[in-house]
Write a structure and sequence with these properties.
mainly alpha; 567 residues; Transcription factor domain-containing protein; two-stranded antiparallel sheet
Amino acid sequence: MPPKLEFVIYTGDATIAKKDPAHRKAVRSFVTAQHYREKRRSDVRKFEGEQVVGGDGMVWGSSMGNPTQENESSTQSREVQLSSSRRQDDPPTVEPGSSITTSAARNTAGLEIDDAQINRVSDTHTAGSAAASPTPYSYLGQGRGNPFAASSRRFSDRMAKHLYYYVNILMPQMHPSWTSNLVVQRFGCTALIVADDLILSSLSAHAATARALMTGDLVRRDQEGKGMGGRGSGFHGAELDWLFFKGRTIRGVNGRLRSGGFGLGGEGDSTIAAIADLIMIEAFTGDLETAGAHVNGLKRILSMSQNAGPIPYSVASMTTASIIKYATLSLSAPALPFTLTFPAISLPLPSLTTILPTLATTLLTKWSLLSPTQSFIPILHDLAHMTRYTEAITLGTFPVASDDSYHEYANYQNLSIEHRLLCYRASRFGSGEKEVVGEEDLIEYCCILAVLLFVNTALWRGYPAESAIIHNMVRRLKEVLEGGIGDETGFKGRWVGQEDVLVWVLFTGVCCSWKQGEEGFFREALGMAMGGLGVRGLDKFRGVLEGFLFVERVHGEVLSEIWGSLM
C-alpha cells in the first residue's frame, strides 16, 4: 500500500517534535510540499507572462491569451489542473515491493498524464481558436528537463496532444528496443520544431488513428460499420481527430502535388514522408483500397524523382518501410525490390550467442522435414541474430554508439528480413487470388505466417492485436488451420510427429489474437495440441516454445495466463 497522506497543522510546540520523530518528519514533509506548491504557482505565473500566441492562434498545448485579461478564478482553476500532473523534476513513484532501474526511472519521469485529458473530446469547430485551460501536456515544449528543446513555435491543443502521444507513448511502444534518446532524436525535438505543417498533420493523423483504434472509437475495415463508429452509433472524439488530421494530410499532399512539390529535398521529402505515413495509417485500419492508391502514388513520385539524384537514406527508409508494411497487410509480394543500403556503423558488432541461446534451434533443425526447399534457413538465421540484438539493446548489454547507428542498423536489417520473408512466401505459394496452399505445404505455410507475426509483434515495430496488419495474418492462419489439425482422437496429415511445431504456431496465434474474435479457436486448439504433445508443466511448455521464436519479454505474460487457464 502507498504511504498514507495526512494534513499536518504545526502548533509551534517544539517539545512534540523532539519527542515524536514521526511527527517531526511529517512537519518537514508538509513544509516541503508548501514550498513546491508555491514554486509551481510561481512557474505558472512566469509561464503565462511569457506565453506567445503565434499565427492562427497556434499555441503549444494551449491557446491562452494574455493572462492579465483573465480573472483570478480562472488562474486558480489552471493551478488545480497543473498540480494534478507530476512535475518533470520529481522522481517516479514506485509501489512497495516493486523495483525500477535508474534508466527506467529517468525514462518514465514526467510521462504520467491525466487520462481524462488525453481522451477528452476535441471540439472540431473551436479547437485552436477558443481560450482553453492548460493541460498536462501544455508545457511539452517548455522548461528544463523536457525532451523538447525550448522553441517559439506553438501548436494547437488539438495537435499537441497527438504529438505528445506519438513521441512519448506510440513510438516507444512500437519500437520497444529503442532508447528514449533515439525516440526523442528521431521523432521529437528538433524534428518537430522544424517540421512543416504537412509532416505535423501526418504524424498527428498516425497518432490519432492508433489511439482511436485502442480506445474502440475506430474499428477495422473488416468489422461492422466498415471502419466507422466503433462504440455504438455516431462519431467519438478520437475518431473525429482521426478524420480531421487524415483529411488535412491528404489535402496537404494534393496541394503539394498540384504545385509540383514532389521532387527530392525540401517540400518533396515532406510530401513523400506524409504519403508514407498515410500508408502506415492503413496498417491499423485495413483499408486496402486506399493504401494501394497511396502506394501507387508513392511509386509514381519515386520514378519521377530518379533523375534528381540518389534518394536520402531517411526518405528511402520511410518509403521502403511503408511499401513492406502494405505488402504484409495485403499478404502480397512487395511492390519494389529492396534497394536500401546502410552506411557503415561506427562500432563493431559484438557476438551475442549467450542471449536467447536456443532461439529457433528446433525450427532450424526440423525445417528439412517441413519444406522441400532450404532457402528459408538463411532468413531464420538472420531473424534469430537480429532478435538477439534487439534483446541486448533492451537489456542494456549492447554497446551504444553516440549517433545511435546500432538502432538504425537493426531497423534496416529487420526491414530486409521482412522483405525477404514476403518474397519467399510469394515465390512458394503465390499471393492474392493466385495463392495456392496444398495439404503437403500446410505446415510450411503456417510457419511462415507465424514468423511474419513474430516480426511485426516482437521486434521493432510491434503492432497491437487490434491492428489490421496483425488481424489479417491471424485470420488467414485460422482459415488454413481449421479442419486441418485433427481432434482429441489424433492429429491429421503432416502434423503427426510435428506436435511441437503446432504448439508454437497455435501459441503465436493466441498471442496475436489477444482479446479478438479468433482467440477462442487458437486457445481450444492449443489445449488439444499440448495434450497430444504431453506437456505437463509450465517449464516444459516454455522449453518447447524456446526452441522456436519465443521471447520472455514479449510472450512471458501470455504464457503464464494461458497455462493458468488450461490447468
